[in-house]
Design a protein that fits this description.
Elements lengths: L2 H26 L3 H8 L3 H8 L7 H11 L3 H6 L21 E5 L2 E5 L9 E8 L16 E8 L2 E5 L5 E3 L4 E5 L4 E5 L5 E8 L12
Antiparallel strand pairs: 1-2, 2-3, 3-9, 4-7, 4-9, 5-6, 5-8
Length: 209
């Protein structure tokens, strides 16, 4: 994806979420404080998102979706109408396709977003190396997670275990409720396939911001 195209994608995503939050608050007569209570996202963060001043992290988006009772992809699309997962449902993503999302953990491509109410959330993530003397980004969320390393070497950290290096073709399956994080072991980005299972038909409810 070209840089200007990626920037436009991020802007469109942010504006869709901003419009949806404003619309829901107007429809339901919610204050920012009420929306904060429902989603667990701070009032200041909600205000910045609504005003287009902040690109919400993946963990914030999943909190918003869970608190509002929306499917994760519906939130990103501004409450688009999509078919629900059902018998004989099918969706295909071609190489390079997927909903783009960028945060402090890397650049995500969310796959199969055409279907709502899925138990699995598949995504391809480009993971940057750890910045000098910085703490790696971590998350913890409900459910289980499976990761397959597609390219590069990845350092996987998860409490209470020692960090481990995963090479191309290696996999890890773990309890996602334990705090965990990934970063590239090399000078450039690594790439993983991550599949999260929440068991609820919703995207995993990330607990960290």
């Amino acid at each position: 994806m070209e840089p200007d195209t990626a920037e436009k994608s991020e802007q469109n995503e942010t504006s869709s979420v901003s419009r949806l939050l404003s619309e829901l608050r107007r429809e339901n007569g919610w204050t920012l404080a009420e929306l904060s209570r429902r989603t667990g996202v701070s009032i200041s963060a909600l205000s910045k998102i609504e005003n287009g001043q902040s690109q919400p992290a993946y963990s914030v988006l999943t909190r918003l979706a869970g608190g509002l009772g929306l499917d994760f992809a519906d939130l990103l699309e501004g409450r688009s109408t999509r078919p629900r997962f059902a018998r004989a449902a099918r969706t295909i993503n071609r190489r390079g396709e997927g909903k783009r999302l960028e945060n402090d953990m890397g650049v995500y491509r969310l796959l199969s977003t055409e279907l709502a109410d899925k138990a699995l959330t598949p995504m391809v993530i480009d993971i940057p190396p750890r910045a000098d003397n910085s703490e790696p980004a971590r998350s913890a969320h409900s459910g289980e997670e499976f990761v397959y390393v597609l390219a590069g070497d990845v350092i996987f950290e998860m409490a209470p275990y020692a960090p481990v290096i995963l090479a191309e073709g290696d996999t890890v399956y773990f309890d996602a409720a334990s705090e965990h994080g990934f970063y590239s072991a090399g000078p450039g980005n690594a790439r993983i396939l991550s599949i999260c299972y929440s068991g609820s038909g919703e995207a995993p409810d990330h607990l960290t911001v």
